[in-house]
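Narrative summary of target 7.
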Amino acid sequence: MKNKILIFLIFGMFLIAPVIALDDQGTGQQNQNFTLVQVCNDANFITIGTIQLPDRTTLIIDTNMTFIAAGTYNYNLINTSQVGRYDVTGISDGCENTFSFFITITPSGQDLDTSQSIIVFGLIIILIVLIIVFLYFGNKTEYVPFKIFLISLSVLFIMLTVGVSLNAVKQLMIMGSVFSGIFGSLYTLMLILVSAGGIGLIVYIIYMSVKQFNMNRGLID
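Modeled conformation, tokenized:
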């Protein structure tokens, strides 16, 4: 019984592997044309069959790729309005007959690689340290204008940290092809809240500055 289960598991892995292990044809920029490329020396035609969009909608293409030279074919993908992963399948009369690969579309056309991730993570750590420092000295000082200045800086850095973190998370979600509509709505809501917080902070700084100015002139207690 155990041997049969093991055989089924191994057979299942061979069935699933071709589906999961798609070739990666790189990253493109949102709303910009992306050239899909296939190379097959003994093919007379290569046809793009379907393209599955990031929202899991499947487009029926059924269009031959354009022959370029030396067994190289390409297809110009025009509709890249969605961000995320595009799965492409097709068929030809040569090579392995069928093929599948994917591309990733991001707003900037770039991936968040390891070095960029380290830079972003380091920036977030530095911002958090600055927030703590400004809050600490802002609470310690007795000079009101300087207190307002330091606390305002800490709030600005908090908003900047939230913005950087949200963009980093968004990029990672896009690369993982799980940037769903719900997360997109939450992301937009957080950006609106951060923007509203920035406007509120500016209004607060102006109010406190005018108040402090009037107090120094003896106009108010």
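The helical segments are 2-20, 114-140, 144-175, 181-216.
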